[in-house]
Design brief:
binds protoporphyrin IX containing FE, alpha+beta, 14 strands, three-stranded antiparallel β-sheet
């Protein structure tokens, strides 16, 4: 990477510290203005990689699965360590033509009927938690609310038995959102294995005695005239848990932080001057939960005049694209009534988030519950960021809810 940028010369995008201890938007503005497609030098014995920062380039890269493959992995950390072992099996890390077949199979499980039912449960659960917390006053939003909702939603979708849900959440937290710099990679891998093994057992059970749920549907499905192998079923269940829990959790937490920090915007929302649906899109843009996704060049290609060689890792920075001033006016101003809002928080193109409907439903439910039950929300202590170069969010958010006066 070029070293001509003030305060960016020692930037290492592989090190979560860079995201936690600095304002990353300063870097992204520099990347977009000076080096919209930049080479990030190798560090610590790991390969270098490309950094794509502009909205137009990130969107075009998402929409180019022919040249940019997902099969080796889609998260920088995983790609720097080697290949994702789930490549070609788990939806997110599979290329065409199998990706298309697997995606249409999974989409069957996300029928409007199923989604409506799940969204209603999200609404009820969220409203009741927010009401309880409004009575409690001060609490940590992460543990008391955010951790309770998305995992329960995915577990409803997969019909995971109640008694297993707590351990799944614990394993899942260990796979991605590290709480500190000392977090152990082996621990993350072993947690991932625990989840996959858990779902292998459940898939075998449901194949023998199918019910009306996603696991049963996958366990009894055929793809290319053969039954979907049990480990493929398990990996795709894992993929739903992974996508469904972490990013929804982070978006809920960042939403509460944003509303606490912007009381004027909160009043506009509460008093009905902004629709929840419009506000949710801005909150997804403002605090983009998945900061990047990555691809591997399947052949030589050119992006913005840069020659990318077959095999190169290409990182697509949603967090930068969503703050591109050529697309979003005053991007670091939270504007809940911003329309249009062409953010890339859910990606774009063939791998566009499968759970976007549910992710949005969860955010709408949170906003509605807050409007119904709260007068005001304020921070009640310093928030603690998660230690990650992939996810943006907090591991602790002490807040005080002020109950709505009737
Ligand atoms: C606010 C919440 C969410 C955000 C910000 C988010 C973000 C994303 C993004 C950016 C991608 C594209 C990845 C890529 O192109 O490589 C993606 C894909 C995916 N998401 Fe989400 N997601 C959210 C919620 C969910 C939920 C609730 C589920 C599950 C029910 C889910 C499941 C998936 C799956 C399975 C994929 C892979 C799709 C494919 O490869 O075809 N996500 N998500």
């Amino acid at each position: 990477m070029s070293t001509d940028a003030p305060a960016v010369d020692s930037l290492d995008l592989t090190d979560p510290t860079a995201f936690v201890t600095h304002d990353p938007h300063e870097y992204w503005t520099w990347f977009r203005r000076s080096h919209p497609v930049a080479w990030h030098e190798a560090a610590g014995g790991r390969p270098g990689f490309w950094v794509v920062a502009d909205h137009a380039d990130v969107q075009a890269a998402y929409d180019n699965p022919r040249d940019l493959s997902s099969a080796r992995g889609t998260v920088l950390d995983v790609l720097l360590r080697g290949d994702d072992s789930a490549g070609g099996k788990m939806l997110a890390v599979t290329d065409r033509p199998r990706h298309r077949e697997l995606r249409s199979l999974l989409l069957r499980a996300f029928s409007p009927r199923v989604l409506r039912g799940v969204a209603e449960k999200v609404h009820t659960r969220t409203a009741s938690l927010v009401e309880q917390m409004a009575a409690a006053g001060s609490f940590d939003f992460v543990t008391s609310v955010a951790e309770q909702i998305p995992m329960a939603t995915i577990c409803d979708l997969l019909s995971v038995p109640e008694q297993d849900r707590g351990k799944l959440l614990e394993w899942n937290k260990r796979t991605l959102s590290s709480s500190d710099a000392e977090a152990d990679e082996m621990d993350a891998l072993s947690a991932r294995n625990e989840i996959v093994l858990y779902f292998m057992d459940l898939a075998a059970e449901r194949r023998a005695r199918p019910g009306d749920d996603v696991i049963s549907m996958l366990a009894t499905a055929t793809l290319d005239t053969a039954p979907l192998p049990l480990d493929d079923v398990a990996l795709n269940c894992y993929s739903l848990i992974l996508g469904g829990d972490e990013s929804s959790r982070m978006s809920a937490i960042s939403t509460v932080r944003a509303l606490a920090d912007h009381p004027g915007q909160w009043r506009d929302l509460r008093e009905g001057r902004v629709a929840c649906e419009t506000a949710a899109e801005e909150l997804l843009r403002w605090a983009t939960p998945a900061m990047h996704f990555a691809r591997t060049a399947a052949q030589d290609l050119v992006i913005r005049g840069q020659h990318i060689e077959r095999g190169d890792i290409v990182t697509l920075w949603n967090v930068s694209a969503n703050n591109d001033e050529t697309v979003f006016d005053a991007p670091r101003t939270l504007n809940l009534s911003r329309t249009p809002n062409r953010h890339l928080a859910f990606g774009y193109g063939p791998h566009f988030c499968l759970g976007a409907f549910l992710g949005r439903a969860a955010l709408h439910a949170l906003l509605r519950a807050m409007i119904e039950h709260l007068e005001a929300v304020e921070l009640d202590g310093p928030p603690v960021r998660i230690f990650s170069n992939f996810l943006f969010g907090y591991q602790s958010l002490p807040v005080r809810f002020h109950r709505r006066r009737r």
